[in-house]
C-alpha cells in the first residue's frame, strides 16, 4: 500500500575541515572539506495532495514561500518525475539560519528523498543528487547520506568514515552570509590540495574562520570559550562552532558550564545520516509488510 503521509528528519552537518584551494572563473571557490552528520536537526512532514499543489505550511522570516529551498526542491522533483500529485509540507525548524550546519540544504534534500518516496517517483539517488546540486552545493551530501570528503564546490564526494564522537555545538546569535565571507578580500584562497587519503588528522582547520571571527565578534567569543575545553573550530561559513568530546556526559558538562553565556546543543556525530537510517527502516517495514 502506498504511503500518503511521511515524517522525516533533516539532519545537521559539520565541516570537520574546510580548505579553499582556488577561485574559479565563474566566481565559485574550489574547496576541500569533510562533511559529517549530526543526530540533530529539523523535521519535515509530507502529505500527498491530489490537486498537484505544493504548499509549505511554515513561515520563515525573510524567506518568501516561492524562494524557500523546500518549495524549490519539491517543484524540481515534480517537474522531473512528471507526477500529477502535489504535497502539503510542514517544517519543524530547529537548525539556525546562517549557522553553517546545513539547515536549508538538509531540508531540501529531505524534501527530494521524502517526496520521491511518497510520490513513488522511482528516481535514483544519482539523479536526485544532481537535482540537489542545482539548489545548493551542500545538498548532494545530504541526498547521499554518508560522511564524505568533498572537492570542487563541494559536490565531488568520496565516502569517508571518521570517528563519531559527541559534539558540543555553540550557536552565536548571528546569521553569517556565505556570499559575504567568500567575497572578503582577506579570505585565504590558496591552500595546498590534500594529496593523502585518508585526510591526515592535522588538517582540521577552517580557512573561513579568520574572516568570520574578524567580522563577527560573537563567533570569536564562542570559539575562545569552547577552546578552553576542546580543539574547537568553525563549521562551514556560518556562525556555529563545535568541539568533539569522548562521551555525552563530558559534552553535557561543558554545555552546562557555558549555558549562562551561550546557547548550543549536544549531538552525536554520525557517518550515516539519521534521514537515511529512517528511510532504510521504513523500507524494511514496507518489505516485511509485503512478505
Structure commentary:
By secondary structure, the chain is α+β, with helices and mostly antiparallel strands. It has one domain: Ribosomal Protein S5, domain 2, CATH 3.30.230. The protein is built from 9 helices and 10 strands. It has helices at 69-81, 103-118, 125-133, 139-144, 178-182, 209-215, 217-226, 248-258, 274-290, and strands at residues 5-23, 29-49, 54-56, 86-92, 148-152, 156-159, 166-170, 233-234, 241-245, 264-270. Strands 1, 2, 3, 4, 5, 6, 7, 8, 9 and 10 form a 10-stranded mixed beta sheet that branches. A hairpin with a 5-residue loop joins strand 1 (5-23) and strand 2. The longest helix has 17 residues, at 274-290. The protein is globular. The two termini are 13 Å apart. The model has no long low-confidence stretch (mean pLDDT 92).
Strand content: 25-35%
Provide the number of structural domains.
1
- Encode the helix/strand succession as letters: EEEHEHHHEEEHHHEEHEH
> Which structural class is indicated by helix and strand composition?
alpha+beta
Helicity range: 25-40%
Parts with pLDDT < 50 across at least 5 consecutive residues = none
CATH topology: Ribosomal Protein S5, domain 2
Q: How far apart lie the N and C ends?
A: 13 Å
**Multimeric status of the protein:** single chain
- Tally the helices: what do you get? 9
Largest sheet: 10 strands, mixed
* CATH architecture assignment: 2-Layer Sandwich
The chain-level mean pLDDT equals 92
